[in-house]
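OP here, attaching both records as promised.
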Amino acid sequence: MPKPIYSKKPKKGVFSRLMKMLLEFYPKLVPVTIICIIFSSIASSIPDMYIQKVIKIITQALSKDWNWSKASEQIIPMMLFLIILYLISTVAITLYSQLMAVITQGFLNKMRQAMFKKMQNLPIRFFDTHKHGDIMSYYTNDIDALRQLISQGLPTVLRAGTVVIAVFFIMLYYSFWLTLLTVGGVILMMIVAKVMGGGSAKYFIRQQKSLGDTEGYIQEIMNGQKVVKVFNHEKICQQEFDEINEQLYQDSYKANAYANTLGPIVMNIGNILYVLIAVVGGVLVLNHVSNYSLSGSVLDVSIVVAFLNMTKQFTGNVNQVTQQINSVVMALAGAERIFDMMDQEPETDEGYVTLVNAEITEDGSVKETKHHTGKWAWKHPHQADGSVTYTPLQGDVRMVDVDFAYEEGKTVLHDVSVYAKPGQKIAFVGATGAGKTTITNLINRFYDIADGKIRYDGININKIKKSDLRRSLGLVLQETNLFTGSVIENIRYGKLDATDEECIAAAKLAGADDFITRLPDGYQTELSGNGANLSQGQRQLIAIARAAVADPPVMILDEATSSIDTRTEAIVSAGMDKLMHGRTVFVIAHRLSTVRNSDLIMVLDHGKVIEKGNHDELIALKGHYYQLYTGAFELD
């Protein structure tokens, strides 16, 4: 799916989908809130009718020489009714204000939960093809646009729209002529709003995109600050930022210029209309022009005065609706981006073979158990006859004639075969881009192969549930990822139910215990910013310990020691040997000294296996590996 952009108009159906979700989240509170808004809006329109009646009573009293006591008999009940109406309206306003706070924040909370849950189910391909800063903007800029729509835009439009409709019918009740004049003025206001509001909305959408670009650039420079400084790129970065920031300024300036101009123009059209109603109404009254209305009343001063107030309400609320155009457009653009992300195809998993705790009986048969025994088996239900078989988890991994391409037509791996028996150490070497990491991505099923087969303990990995497959694999990447929390919590990430003793034992195995115990709070030292207070080598040691505590039968080490200096590598080598003992291990390494003791070394070039054998065999062959190995020594 092509990545949505801010500069296009929101798709049709986005608003209805948003409203449907809002009702699904709050099926009772939303209707109650709508009723309160409509009631308070209608209540604010009714007083104009009573103002007209009061003025008429007073003018009649003056013409008939009434005293206040006679007039007050009719006026006081009206005043009491209005007071009660306003009190009830105040309660309704207070209630819907509180409910809107609950609905708005609750809706955003549920949306973020739904987005994050969806994100956890997306394939790795999505994160490889989308900028992380852009993904973050879903949770910041786009969610904030929805907040403004739900908390301000929708209530304002509903409230103002209700007032406009109510006042329109009250106007018709009193005078067709003055209503026609008012509607003509409002049509002019809407034309102006469409012309200027359209330009404003266009630039507000561009502003949102420019804001995302600016935030993304700042994040990128912050993450690479050391690189920027060491290569003296401060001035270039400043120039690049100035260009991006200038674009944000231009878009923001134009958006707000339109928006700030629209309000006063529409408001002044309303003021002109107010004057016209007073003048035209006065002329009609003085000339005793026949009045056409639903009430059949004669046009007099009381109706003109009431119309002046209704005109203010009518135009004022139309102006409020036009002011929400920008927030509505921005929110719909943000909602479209969010829905596009939530509509992405989730990671598929047709697997039905699961990993279970197992016991090996004396006769060698495998039995499932609920207790943790340290032994695992694949539970394989056979759909044909309904039988279930158990295969011990050993770590036998075989790739047969595998082809793969990240993009159609651009083959990354071609006819690759790998045979790893339980306990073997298989190494992949070759130039950057040769396909080494891709092989491990396929074993993890981060991506699925285009052709060929991958079998794990004799089972096609497509039949194994991905969560169970990945639970049986340990992974240490070249790029470490530590999370906010203590050191021991980061180690426990590999096995959430691991005890402190198991985590410490794993750290000792990886050679990390020595430096951890010298930290200010030892294993309880808090880490943040991907372990920014640790060296790269120390972060890698914690990542190795995290894999060790998981105790998987298969380990994948993707340049696991590339960030560790020679002295630290010597310290960790013994621990790594213990970690790899009895396990099937796949090693990717540029430092060829780390793969000399591998059972099998596979040399890749442009997605093909061009040589394979152990170290001595490949050196004797004097081929590509020999050149890489001797070249490494020359570099040393």
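Record two, same layout:
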Amino acid sequence: MCGIAGFTGHHDPELLERMTGLLSHRGPDAAGHWSDPAARVALGHRRLSIVDLSGGAQPMWTPDGGLGVVFNGEIYNHAELRADLVRLGAEFQTDHSDTEVLLHAYRQWGDSFVERLNGMWAFVLFDRERRRLFGSRDRFGKKPFFYFHRGDQFGFASELSALRAHPACPGSLSTLALRKYFAYGYVPAPFTLLEGVRKLPGGHSFSLDLDSQNLAIRPYWQFTLEPDPGLAEPGRLEALCEELRATLENAVRRRLMSDVPLGVFLSGGLDSSAVAALAARHLPRIHTFSVGFTDPSFDESTHARRMARHLGSEHHEEILDLERSSSLLPEIVSRLDEPIGDSSLLPTYLLCRFARQTVTVALGGDGGDELFAGYDPFRALGPAMLYQRWIPAPVHAAVRALVGKLPVSHRNLSLDFKLKRTLAGLSHPPPFWNPVWMSPLTPADLDAVFGSRLAPEELYSESLTAWEQSPSGHPVDRSLNWWTRLYLQDGILAKVDRASMLNSLEARSPFLDIEVANLARKIPHSLKLRNGCTKWILKKALSPLVPADILNRPKKGFGMPIGRWIRSGRFNPGPLPGPVRPELVEEKLQAHLQGRVDERLFLWSAWMLSRWPAP
């Protein structure tokens, strides 16, 4: 796992070192720099050594010097690809570096070689003979990639903060991206908060012709549901469960490759418990890690402890005081390169920091909820369809007003919070339910805070596309598209990447293995959400591995008492960039402080943004 940076257009070795220096937390073990004034290309790398410790230095070149690469990530099927390439005549210089596989695979199969990769990655190849750069980001966007292109200057980096060190990097604020941040709680790809700076979306590649300066962005994969109704036949269920269990086990086994100490995050929920159970089948000794909190409303440590005893793992647990731990937030946020409105950033960071004391690699359960319909909003879809069909708009407004009078609670996932969020979403057409349910601000509130109107179709354009591109048209399938394409990539995975890499820890996600994802895409929604039970088929498949009390316990999540913290006078937002009306922000803050309205999501997102070094 590493950090990469580079640019074209001029020769400046000191600039390259400054950019990679800002990525040192992503790669504390080594640094590599290469620049050529004639080629007008510079490639930089910071290394966290995981595989082939002695032979994986970067930038890495083919023996003839024709191809060079900087790479961030892991290719889990690199051994199989290496064997295929050797049979085709490739001569490798390293013992088992996955980086070198990229060079020979590109030379053998061209740009389409990325379709053969199973892993997580962001890389840039320099093809000296063809005078082009070629780069790619993994299918789900686990590894970040920021870039800009202005005239004959192209810059890229693993983090926005490193890219901003380049003098040609655009520096003006994107008002549209700012509104999308408050609409989602994160900035969806390809947008960033800087106008003219982009994220390469997951499942996309780019090529840059250094002579013509033509930059082409192309998708090579997109998460698309292709349900097979036959899988839902009663006679097929046992075989499907066996296939799902075996496919996930293979994904876990692949992610155990490491030349450094490795462990598993264990929250006590279904997904992390399954990963730990499957890893224990292939390791003589397994380390598991969890953090707990003294506040019982936000603590899951007893469940993690229960699962660790079931596995017989060497369990590492840290119990923390939430109030004391929250003092770390200003430092954590100051090191984020882009604001993320997810308060679980703090416990995720604390878990990664704790695990890094023992291991360099940790496996987790990210992706299970998105692929198998694990979130509470999936259960709300059926009642929501009935509610919208039978409740007239005037009555809906009255119901919403009545529920709005419920006392505000700051407990984790409290009933009043869920009811109010659900009714807010139902004020809009179905394509906007999921984003509004998760949004810091509703479209109407956004219009008020920004002092201008933006049509929901433009504000939530990505959500509308994800909703409309579901082949079956069923609301569960449509929602699966949204949660996987948007929330997973730009919310969950961005948070885990930053929290882990700030601690120089590599996080791996077996559920996002391409074979697991391809199987999940074929499973009908009726097997994922059945009679109100989320992840039904996954629970059935994992029942031989996970105790029933862990398998069936309600989802809790990694929440934080941010509403209570804000009411106590902490984490109140400072001045915000862009055309945000400060009097509206103050109005919402006072309503929250007085306990009249729960504005925790907006105020928290605003506090995160106010700590970001805006242009």
